[in-house]
Amino acid sequence: MSAFDRPPNVLRAAPMRVAALTLAATLALVAAPVHAEKADRDKPINFSADQPAQVDFQKRVGTLRGNVIITQGTLSIHADRIDFKQNPDNSLSATAFGNPVSFRQKKDGSDEYFEGYAQKAVYSGETQTLELFDRALLKEGKNELRSNYISYNESTGIFKAEGRPDAPGTEGPGARVRGVFQPQPESGATKGDAAPGAPTGGAAKAGTAAMPSGASATAAPPLTLTPDTRPPGK
């Protein structure tokens, strides 16, 4: 089954008032806050690539090309090209391009991971936001959200998506937002909490993507960039 085949249970974005030539829909999935691994920014930034890397140690920025892997703690990004920098608070920010880009990071205090796939990904460790562009898929365990634009705020645990037309020459989900919440375990639930088969884990509402302001900068430790020859994680 294709990664963009329609799942059996979908949450569809409500129609928006848009111009006649604009095909856009927005869906915000508001779930209980689940934060990314807090210790990641205290770890060194490791990278590997098939082609020579361009790194400026003074500005703490770099450009990697060719089967690129960049990691910091539990966070990993795999792509064809990654432009990245180390922020003043030691967190990682990166813009990645690939077919697809894959992003993975562990949830704080949990063994579960968030996973994102798209043709382009923009991640900011300072604002704790991830944006996925074109043929985007964001997964939290078995729950998932599909669209041509998805953003995720790690500090609030809120996902937002917009239905946008497919990029020229590509086949994707089109101007539609689709998602699925799997049933939650019955432990701790009481009768009448929810009807069988009803979506759980969050409420859906229309909204627009908005990024939080960045946190104040602190003194950064020395930049540590070392080749990482480990194979990509599954």
What do these coordinates show?
It is built from no helices and 13 strands. The chain is an all-beta fold and 234 residues long. It is globular, with a radius of gyration of 19 Å.
How are the SSEs ordered, and which strands pair?
Blueprint: E1 25-31, E2 45-48, E3 54-56, E4 61-72, E5 75-86, E6 92-106, E7 113-124, E8 129-140, E9 143-153, E10 158-163, E11 178-180, E12 202-205, E13 225-227
Parallel strand pairs: 2-13
Antiparallel strand pairs: 1-10, 1-12, 2-4, 3-4, 4-5, 5-6, 6-7, 7-8, 8-9, 9-10, 9-11
Helical element count? Answer: 0
Q: What level of helicity do the residues show? A: under 10%
DSSP strand tally: 13
Beta-strand level of the residues, as a percent range? 35-45%
Rg: 19 Å
Structural class: mainly beta
Sketch the topology as an H/E string, one letter per element.
EEEEEEEEEEEEE
Alpha-carbon distance between the two ends: 19 Å
Uncertain stretches of 5 or more adjacent residues: 1-34, 194-220
Largest beta-sheet details: 13 strands, mixed
- Mean of the pLDDT scores? 73
* Global shape: globular
